[in-house]
Amino acid sequence: AIGKRPVLLASSTHKGEDGVTGEAHVKLRAALPELLTIIVPRHPDRAPAIAQELAALGLACELRSAAAVPSSACAVYIADTIGELGTFYALAPVSFIGGSLIPHGGQNPIEAVRHGSAVLTGPHTHNFVEAYAALTKNGGAAVVSNADELAAAALRLLSNEAARSAALQSADDAVQLLSGALETTMA
C-alpha cells in the first residue's frame, strides 16, 4: 500500500505534537510530494481529534481502525491501534519520538533504533536521559524544537541515504553500549 512513498513516523505523540507533525508534513510536501506521515498517538482514543486538527491544515487523514492500509490519497495515516509500533518503525526510515516536544519527558527511542529507523526527538527527554545522551552524543539522534526544525531534519534524513546511514550506525553503536542489563543483573 505504501509502495515507494517516503515515510515519516511520529510515534507515541501527545497532545500538542500532532499539529507540529502536520505542519512539518505540509512543509515537506514541496520536496517530497508523495510523503506519507504516520502518527501513532500514545493514547489511541485521541485519533478523531488528531484527524480533525490535521484536516484543518488541509491534510487528508485516515485512521488505521477504519482503513487497514493507507490509500494513495492519504497524507497522514493515524495508527489508532495498540501493539503495532514495531511494524511502523520497520516501515519508516525516520521516526520522531513523541512526548518530547512538550514537557512530558519523551518516550524510549531504542525500539526505533532496533528497527532501523533514524531518530528525531524534541528537547524534553528527561525520562530517558541516558539513552538520549548516548544517541545524541555522536549523531545517532537529532533534537528538534518546532515544525521547521522537524521538517528540515526529516528532509535531510529522508533525502540523503548517506546521512541516514551514518545516523543509524551511530545510533546502533550507542544502543550496543547501553545493552547488557540482563547479563549484568544475572551476574
What features would you highlight for this structure?
single chain; 187 residues; alpha/beta; 16% strand
Number of helices: 8
Oligomer: single chain
Strand content: 15-25%
Going by helix content, strand content and strand pairing, the class is alpha/beta
Sheet with most strands: 7 strands, parallel
How would you describe this protein?
Helix 1 (18-28) packs across helix 6 (147-159) and helix 6 (147-159) packs across helix 7 (161-178). By secondary structure, this protein is of the alpha/beta class. The mean pLDDT is 96. The chain has helices spanning 18-28, 47-55, 85-91, 110-114, 129-137, 147-159, 161-178, 181-186; strands spanning 7-13, 36-41, 61-63, 76-78, 94-97, 118-121, 141-143. The protein starts with 6 loop residues before the first strand and ends with a helix. A seven-stranded parallel sheet has the order 3-4-2-1-5-6-7, sandwiched between helices.
Blueprint (SSEs and pairs):
Blueprint (H helix, E strand, L loop, with lengths): L6 E7 L4 H11 L7 E6 L5 H9 L5 E3 L12 E3 L6 H7 L2 E4 L12 H5 L3 E4 L7 H9 L3 E3 L3 H13 L1 H18 L2 H6 L1
Parallel strand pairs: 1-2, 1-5, 2-4, 3-4, 5-6, 6-7
